Automatic annotation (TrEMBL):
PANTHER family: 6-PHOSPHOGLUCONOLACTONASE. The gene is pgl. This is 6-phosphogluconolactonase. GO terms for molecular function: 6-phosphogluconolactonase activity. Residues 8-216 form the Glucosamine/galactosamine-6-phosphate isomerase domain. The lineage of its organism: Bacteria, Pseudomonadati, Bacteroidota, Cytophagia, Cytophagales. It comes from Algoriphagus lacus. Belongs to the glucosamine/galactosamine-6-phosphate isomerase family. 6-phosphogluconolactonase subfamily. It comes from the Bacteria.
Length: 231
């Protein structure tokens, strides 16, 4: 797994945006579209702000969510709410094809199946071009949380957590779908990620993040997160 250590969280966001912009150009030129799933977080939203300034064929980009809290529409805890706030007033708001997780559905299990079907239909082969992931200080990624049965799901691409995490049940992409992605991009910032970054690099199976495929993965980390790796 390739690791790029950058000076600051802002530089992580900037370099990640440029990396994604290049992938969009490459994939649109090659096959006519690009599929991306993003997680939430301060650095990813900064990445999206920078990316929104790029002159790209946004109408050919299909954006999915990695995970979402089961919460009412417009709730500030929801990743979708933060995404819309981030892209408000940019060309992405009207040109980007966004597929929200339907977490306000009456039947959430059916909503998971529906979301998986959307991904299959848009990608045409069930493989997202890029999945962006973050890493929690407890080793979770997406909403694949330590000790939750969702981590053992092997027959579905989208599933629900079995227990609330930080007060909310979640809908999440699962390992089968994540590990099929053409590329996986990790963004890690902050000194509190230092230990978990080392475990991730060691593919530590004791944390959910360590079970994500490393073959097609790239990490952008800031110096505080990677302080133990800097000589």
């Amino acid at each position: 797994m390739e690791l790029k250590i950058l000076q600051s969280a802002d530089e992580v966001a900037r370099q990640a945006a440029l990396f994604i912009a290049d992938l969009i150009k490459e994939n649109v030129a090659k096959k006519g579209f690009f599929t991306l799933a993003i997680s939430g977080g301060r650095t990813p939203w900064e990445m999206i702000k920078i990316l929104a300034q790029e002159n790209l064929p946004w109408e050919k980009v299909y954006l999915f969510q990695v995970d979402e809290r089961i919460a009412p529409e417009g709730n500030p805890e929801r990743n979708l709410t933060q995404l819309f706030t981030t892209i408000q007033g940019t060309r992405l708001m009207t040109r980007l094809n966004i597929f929200p997780m339907r977490v306000i559905a009456e039947n959430l299990e059916e909503a998971c199946e529906e979301y998986a079907s959307h991904i299959q239909e848009v990608t045409r082969n069930g493989k997202l071009d890029l999945i962006h992931l973050g890493l929690g200080s407890d080793g979770h990624t997406a909403s694949l949380v330590p000790g939750d049965a969702v981590c053992e799901v092997a027959d579905r691409d989208v599933a629900l957590t079995t227990s609330p995490y930080q007060g909310r049940q979640r809908m999440t992409l699962t390992y089968p779908l994540i590990n099929r992605a053409e590329k996986i991009l990790w963004l890690l910032t902050g000194e509190e990620k230092t230990e978990m970054l080392q475990r991730l690099l060691n593919a530590g199976q004791e944390i959910p993040a360590g079970r994500v495929s490393q073959n097609q993965a790239l990490i952008f980390a800031d110096e505080p997160a990677a302080k133990n790796l800097i000589q």
